[in-house]
């Protein structure tokens, strides 16, 4: 999976303003490395419809080493600058104009690696020198998902939409396809057709 990360757009003191579009795709399937799941396959159909001048970064959370999140809000009160893969994720998050959660439904909910990433947002809101809240409010969040049943995916979509709302992010909507074994979603012709228009 490509881990090409653009230089972070958000340094302390950098003025806000229009910036080139760059989409960060965060894949949270727990399939083995190298095994492309249905959600990623569908997301790549959508990505193919992006204009050529829009940058893309793809990161698979399962291939990164994320520390467990520790809630320091009411003790230390702030967080040190992240290091290693957590820094990679923060930099990629800040550098993106658009973030797409490529997220299967696991137990009617958010896959654990994505949940850990989201929990770290709480720390990044409290990391000195990181204008996380201001920067996130400039971004759009979208979700591309597969599972067995669209209606039962709704609580997960609602959770993501509420996370976006909490940070003042624009909500770009969701794309869902019927998954299962790898390749299954390719038979969901409606989802494949919708992928081509996902960015509108
Ligand atoms: C741990 C786990 C939990 C799952 N929970 C659900 C679920 O609650 N509802 C559902 O419809 N499918 C569930 N599935 C099936 C996946 O959502 C489905 O196979 C999906 O297409 C997998 O995405 P991927 O191919 O991108 O990895 C689950 C699969 C796993 C491995």
UniProtKB/TrEMBL annotation:
Keywords: Flavoprotein, FMN. Residues 22-179 form the Flavodoxin-like fold domain. Gene3D superfamilies: 3.40.50.360. It holds the Pfam family Flavodoxin_2. It comes from the Bacteria. Coiled coil: none annotated. This is NAD(P)H-dependent oxidoreductase. It comes from Curvibacter cyanobacteriorum.
């Amino acid at each position: 999976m490509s881990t090409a990360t653009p230089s972070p757009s958000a340094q302390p003191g950098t003025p806000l303003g229009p910036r080139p579009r760059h989409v960060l795709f965060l894949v949270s399937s727990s399939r083995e490395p190298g095994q492309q799941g249905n959600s990623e396959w569908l997301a790549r159909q959508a990505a193919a419809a992006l204009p050529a001048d829009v940058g893309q970064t793809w990161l698979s959370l399962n291939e990164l080493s994320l520390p467990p999140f520790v809630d320091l809000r009411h003790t230390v009160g702030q967080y040190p600058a992240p290091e290693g893969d957590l820094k990679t994720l923060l930099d990629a998050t800040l550098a993106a104009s658009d973030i797409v959660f490529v997220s299967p439904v696991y137990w009617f909910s958010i896959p654990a690696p994505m949940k850990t990433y989201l929990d770290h947002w709480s720390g990044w809101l409290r990391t000195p020198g990181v204008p996380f809240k201001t920067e996130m409010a400039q971004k759009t969040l979208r979700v591309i998902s597969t599972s067995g049943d669209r209606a039962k995916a709704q609580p997960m979509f609602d959770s993501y939409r509420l996370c976006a709302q909490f940070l003042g992010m624009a909500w770009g909507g969701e794309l869902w396809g019927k998954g299962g074994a790898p390749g299954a979603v390719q038979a969901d012709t409606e989802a494949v057709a919708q992928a081509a228009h996902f960015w509108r």
